[in-house]
Records
---
Amino acid sequence: GAFAILNRLNKQVVFQSEVPHLKSAEQLPKGYVMTISTQAGQYTTNLFHLHKGPQPIYSDSTLRAEALAWDELRKQIWVAGDQKLRQLKVTKHNKLEIQKEWKLPVPLEENSEMVTEGDYLYIKGKQNTMAFNLDTFSFSDQSKLKVPHPSVGAQTDSPVELSQLPSYEKLLLAPIMTYRFQNMTINRVRKF
């Protein structure tokens, strides 16, 4: 897998890096990008900096993070994994540090995703949706509610091999932009 940050005005790639078995990526303030990847059940959290090249400046497999979200309103990083929800921060030494953690009320489902909306952090799996109140720090079951999927743009349940699409020069369309990719499998697209 890989991720890229694109300049939407000139459609140029600002930053890109290969991350094997990428699950999630979030662009953070001050030029940081955080990713979660998995291989053979081992979850790795990587921290990149846009001005320090495509290699991670920090990696951690002890967090066992499986889902990731950035709360722009509160300027907080959230990860879920190892049956815990954790609030993180980037230290002045370019490391990730746990600020607080809470035990998840139900097991985290495979391929769960997180998104913040107002005063809530939603943890969405295929079967369950949990809401974590960011003011009271309490969980509630929201499985009966229809929570929008956190990924904006194209979303598929399984990877799409672009060579199977009708056009040779593949197009990925979003409301105000067009990107062209060749020889690539797309799992998710997020617009920041």
---
Amino acid sequence: VMEKVVIADSWKAVFARNGIKTFSEFYYGIAKKRITRSRDKKRSVSMIELQTEKGPQKLFLKRFRHPHFKDILFTFLNTGRFQSQAGFEADNIDLLEKNGISVPKVAAFGEQVKLGLERRSFIILEEAKGQCMTDFIAQNWDEMPLAEKQKVISSLAKTIRKIHDANIGLTDLYLWHIFISENENHDYDFAF
């Protein structure tokens, strides 16, 4: 079994301060509050809180366990190599960022591989900027003037067009994966 952990430079001291350095410590050892888990228990997302110099910092831990063959095949067909689910997500986040799309920063990711195939992997992300689109709609949509609704939809469509123009496919583009914020020009920005 081979294990690999990649930590962003800006987070190395924080994880060290919290006593987290090995794959097992990242995957199993961080106190977490689970947000969701797939029915087959192969994926879970949890909120974690780490102590930083500025106080507690909220992050999100996504863990993968024994991925489906279809996910392994999808990753291979899209990258030409066997790659963990967390590694694939980290690469996609990097690709989106390089194309000017707002994404949460990767704090760390790791993978546990046996005979070239993923057994487990994880990715830890900073909190996305903005408000979850589902919350934004629930709180604002009914009172929002039609022109403002059109502005939101048009801004979102332009951002998604930018993603597609960069030949990036987002297979899990759902409203609860989109974060919206208003910028200084009173336009809308989106993070994925």
---
Amino acid sequence: ANGRWITLDCTEDIGNYEGSAYPLSQKRDYFNPTEDFFAKTHLRLTRGSYIAAEEPSAWAKEEIIRAVDKRYIPISILFNYQTPIRKSDFESLLGILSEHDDQFLTRLEAAVMITQVMSVSLLETQPISYEDTINLSWTEQMALTALYHNDIMHGNGAFFYPDRLITRQEAIVVVERLLESGTYRKPTYGAS
């Protein structure tokens, strides 16, 4: 409340109350509302502000925290990290006007969308090829190449998994990498 933590003790201490008060003689180290304590089980949103959240995978946690600290990512998507992200949510992260319904997004679709907001030229670059992307179009191959060479999105070893749905944590990480890469150009709509 008013930017400060409120500690509510909702534990059940049957038999430990004297009258209606908790006796001071009882050890009360089961709850410690310090920032270090909250950091173990909560995601830091801003200095001194935490929310209880499903933990992102270890490989994504540092970049997710950095994206939140830099206000790249809206707080509204900071949950259910291992679940797929919807197209409309991903497009809003990229600054693209969305007309999609609530369909989920594949890794390949995400890669192509990301390259729509990148300012890079790879005309003389040999396309990167994963074992499961050999049959992709030249445009899709170049999208993967742009993301690979700019350290934004990679496969896992020899595979990219283009048809796998992209998770919320993957989406947050690739958007954070895109914004840090210096290749992002905000989409423009209509004539100026």
